[in-house]
Amino acid sequence: MTQVKNIAILGASGYTGAELVRLIATHPLMNIVAMSAERKAGQEMAEVFPHLRHLDLPTLVKIDQIDFSQVDLCFCALPHATSQAVISKLPKTLKIVDLSADFRLRDPEEYAKWYGGKHDALECQAEAVYGLTEFYREDIKTARLVAGTGCNAATGQYALRPLIEAGLIDLDDIIIDLKTGVSGAGRSPKEMLLHAELSEGAHPYAIGGTHRHLAEFDQEFSAIAGRPVKVQFTPTLLPANRGIIANVYVKGDAERIYEALKSAYDDEQFMQVLPFGQAPSSRHVRGSNFCHIGVCADRLSGRAMVIATLDNLTKGSSGQALQNANLMLNLPEEMGLEMAPVFP
Amino acid sequence: MTQVKNIAILGASGYTGAELVRLIATHPLMNIVAMSAERKAGQEMAEVFPHLRHLDLPTLVKIDQIDFSQVDLCFCALPHATSQAVISKLPKTLKIVDLSADFRLRDPEEYAKWYGGKHDALECQAEAVYGLTEFYREDIKTARLVAGTGCNAATGQYALRPLIEAGLIDLDDIIIDLKTGVSGAGRSPKEMLLHAELSEGAHPYAIGGTHRHLAEFDQEFSAIAGRPVKVQFTPTLLPANRGIIANVYVKGDAERIYEALKSAYDDEQFMQVLPFGQAPSSRHVRGSNFCHIGVCADRLSGRAMVIATLDNLTKGSSGQALQNANLMLNLPEEMGLEMAPVFP
Amino acid sequence: MTQVKNIAILGASGYTGAELVRLIATHPLMNIVAMSAERKAGQEMAEVFPHLRHLDLPTLVKIDQIDFSQVDLCFCALPHATSQAVISKLPKTLKIVDLSADFRLRDPEEYAKWYGGKHDALECQAEAVYGLTEFYREDIKTARLVAGTGCNAATGQYALRPLIEAGLIDLDDIIIDLKTGVSGAGRSPKEMLLHAELSEGAHPYAIGGTHRHLAEFDQEFSAIAGRPVKVQFTPTLLPANRGIIANVYVKGDAERIYEALKSAYDDEQFMQVLPFGQAPSSRHVRGSNFCHIGVCADRLSGRAMVIATLDNLTKGSSGQALQNANLMLNLPEEMGLEMAPVFP
Amino acid sequence: MTQVKNIAILGASGYTGAELVRLIATHPLMNIVAMSAERKAGQEMAEVFPHLRHLDLPTLVKIDQIDFSQVDLCFCALPHATSQAVISKLPKTLKIVDLSADFRLRDPEEYAKWYGGKHDALECQAEAVYGLTEFYREDIKTARLVAGTGCNAATGQYALRPLIEAGLIDLDDIIIDLKTGVSGAGRSPKEMLLHAELSEGAHPYAIGGTHRHLAEFDQEFSAIAGRPVKVQFTPTLLPANRGIIANVYVKGDAERIYEALKSAYDDEQFMQVLPFGQAPSSRHVRGSNFCHIGVCADRLSGRAMVIATLDNLTKGSSGQALQNANLMLNLPEEMGLEMAPVFP
């Protein structure tokens, strides 16, 4: 009989921390034994996230109060930079799923360029496995440290990886126009995240190729193609809490593109490719670990659009993290993740 | 070993039908064997509700195409009036949970008064048990036909029943000011339900004591009190999809009221009474079967407010229905219902 | 010919400041000559509020950079406490409309009780006129300093003043259940005001009779009645930016109540009393200076509900302020305020 | 002295009709003398649109009840196809601004192809002027019949016309990724327009080059370029009522593109070009006749993005219509249109 695994969550007072708790709450073989939140140490999770008040959870503590010897796996949902400082000091045998950006980039120079500083935990980086489950599954199973992907980066990769792999599209003319809900920006109060600022409007941000998730696109797409691939990528902030949906404009044959995606994801439980010509909706994956993908041809021949949507807090971060943790702990990959989307 | 139960859902193309499917999808001991939708018969559920496309579900059929001999329990999510016509013709031994208003009122005259017509299935009405689980649990266990409550009616009763029972409040001065999301109004297109009409605004409706759920308040509160009790009740439509939250204004001692609620719900898994003086939020129960209740004293002595919130599609209808079905099928009451709320 | 008036706005970087600019932008006889914002001094308004970029406005400055000798009237949209400190040092002849809470309460002890501190500008308070235009019009015309009302306080008073005046309702049993959009809470970043926290949910706050606008209700209603009147008042925060709507539960004859309101507001351009039995919607006053009022009888005899709605940023604060300024400057009261609501 | 003009509005019960009334309500030289609504004839506008209840408006009538001899200009806000049938029977001397799609396309075959039927009023079409004010101003001044543009079509053209004109971009590689609020879809109840369907999500529609506004892009861009130009265009439906924002991906020099737009719109009152590198927001034009445009370079050299945003009901339809009507009636072009956007 499989034993229940002891889980710690560092940075439990943010949205991805809360999402981890929501998911693990119904996971039959995980038990949360410790949760940290530096500024809110001493508080109960029910005070910080009243929607979790029905759960019997450990009190929030500071990281250094946690006895990691009893922990089978640790989720690290800390801000980037903080994450590398903390993880480099954790026991070297502890299994870790990191949700920050700190271990996503294999090239320290790329890290320095996009994140504005030297990486302070390069030996951890050296062993980190990139956490896009469907494409790094075997490595994740044996990894000690898995680096969760950016939520936008996951969305774009689900649309594009099989196409680049199969050589079906023009690698020099890829545009990802992505729309995202606001929860990905976190819970720290900022003027631009206020309801009064966001409701009933939309605006592009990080325009011109400045969004940090481009570093992941560059790394992954170039690795697949075996040559540099640089996409054009613009995110737009929507008046919605959850959900990312990306229109990916490519040059190639739409039907072959469709077949490639269909075949790539045929055995993937969480990847749903819609019938050819149908568009998915971000609201139809809300609260779930599913990614819906649609493909259409354009009226202009030789052009196609791939549309991918997922919930940024679930498949885009905490759900992905749990899926990876299941693999690392030799549990069924889908355990705790099979809930249907919440609609309406 | 408990056997998997075969489930039918009539009226699966509405929001409560979809919510039933969402919940049953992760229920370990239920299997959906038939789903009806008269106008959409022949379609797949994935076309009607794309968020359920990952599930392997039976094709939608007309009711008369269903072989009920293989069905252990049937959820009936049809419009009122239709429901009584259909249920009166179903096999007399079939266990049924009805989500319509048709079997909620024990007095046919009350039904005629509030729903504007003669009841055509009075013999079914005679055996129907009112489905407010926490208060009719024993009857539900042995019932053949359970009548789901109104979603507003459930919310108000959770706040008030223990107080009336304990004789703690003035029965002649109860005001329920309730706010509700829009999904309770269903999926049929109406001008007043359009996004462009509702977004960024709010308005009371069914004002002056005309909302049909008052019939349930009258029936239940009077029965508890042993004398006629008539509350004042106003619903306000919010720009939100899910969630009901009610401010219930009562005259009585706030601390005794708090103790009565605390004690009434102490052993109830889905009922969460907040610390005295705290207000719940509808967003903290979204997508879950939980009901959060808060109590405060007013600055005016002798007055208190009870605030109750639940998700109208879950605890207010389909979640309640599943909870009752579990009881009727001798399954653990909470099975399939333990998911945490989805926040943010 | 009437001369164009020179206007200053202190605290122009908040929502009420921006709303003043929006309104004055099309006012034919007002010209904004100075705008202050302490922390944003030196910035252009187009940077702080891009929706105003088409306007030719003065650069934001610190208050002490303003030459008040050229100013005909000054709007003060500063936080409470700051406002009294600033206003007590402005020229004693300068006409001022204050939008803060600082000069609303005539009794310094009430101020200290509700706002938690000694009032530091009592001699200004002594000359301040309470700014509920329709009821203090004559005093406002000759006032030097007008104290804008609380937005919730305005809403409740529009529903109740004529009824208390006419002796039509039970003064000891008044409940104001009010729903409000989020812009009234201002632009300072706070966790509870984030889109991700507020969207798709609602929650009561300042429960139990603790909201500061109660001080205005107490003051005004008691003055009208000639005896202490204390109402029960609960606000609920809605997922909407603008708009307040209040259900006011009273005991009295609904038709007489209706007639009293109808007659009170018959000649008031901005007050719209709906046909008896109809409920207003907050979305139908958005962006305008109108207040819509509905009245209905309840099924319980002797009970009525008055529903009042207005836009908190317009009729509830900046529109009211401009209406008062027009009076103080001997301009037509409605000038710059006649725009229709923006719907949808 | 300029005389007040008598205005008729056909199809006043839709959102563009209501928006016309909102705007004309504060127009100093227009007077609405007749409004039609076939199915709602006999009703008052206050019943159909309660936000307009403060206005003294004519009762809704059927079109054949209107005496057009007293009308100076008629706005026609009817559904397409209906519009051509009605307009072809109106007096041949009546000035008309049509808001439907019926007279936008100069080539009858294009009309038939995109709108699925033969055009029945080709002689009206022959005299119709395309209503994109800034580019057809002189023709509009002397036109009898002006065809309002599609709201998406206006947005894309504002971004692209000056660039095509100046030969600054690759004409064979233009992508318009556009996001739109829901009010553009009208007030007729449809399942896909319900709040419960749209809130908190987004989805592309009319994908693959099937949206009818492409016909306008084809016509206009090809005419400017003197050769066929076909763009790729995808709209996404947002959970917002008003506002369109388009990311227009082009190949060309970003700074030259910026200069071309800056110079094209320098004297245009309603066109606001932001500082280079800044992105506009749809919420910052809400309720106004302004169009905000931003330009940025991409990290990939030779690529740029132009972002254009406007309010679909104002600058995208009814505001544009009024701007054109002012020109046709020899009134100041901006009259009744100078209100600032409503934010938040």
Structure commentary:
Four copies of one chain form a homotetramer. The first copy, chain A, has 344 residues and is an alpha/beta fold. Chain A is built from eleven helices and 14 strands. The first copy, chain A, has two domains: 159 residues, Rossmann fold; 161 residues, Dihydrodipicolinate Reductase, domain 2. In chain A, the strands form two sheets. A seven-stranded parallel sheet of chain A has the order 3-2-1-4-5-7-6. The two termini of chain A are 39 Å apart. In chain A, 61% of the residues are buried. The mean pLDDT of chain A is 97. Chains in contact: A-B, A-C, A-D, B-C, B-D, C-D.
The overall pLDDT of chain A, averaged over residues, is 97
Radius of gyration based on Cα positions of chain A:
19 Å
Distance between the termini of chain A: 39 Å
Largest interface: A-D, 51 and 51 residues
Tertiary shape of chain A = globular
Along the chain, the helix and strand elements of chain A come as EHEHEEHEHHEHEHEHEHEEHEEEH
User: How many alpha or pi helices of chain A?
Assistant: 11
Oligomer: homotetramer
Low-confidence stretches of chain A: none
Kindly identify the CATH topology of the largest domain in chain A.
Dihydrodipicolinate Reductase, domain 2
The largest sheet of chain A, given as strand count, sense and whether it forms a barrel, is: 7 strands, parallel
Q: How many β-strand stretches of chain A? A: 14
CATH class of the largest domain in chain A: Alpha Beta
State the helical fraction of chain A. 25-40%
Structural class of the helix and strand makeup of chain A? alpha/beta
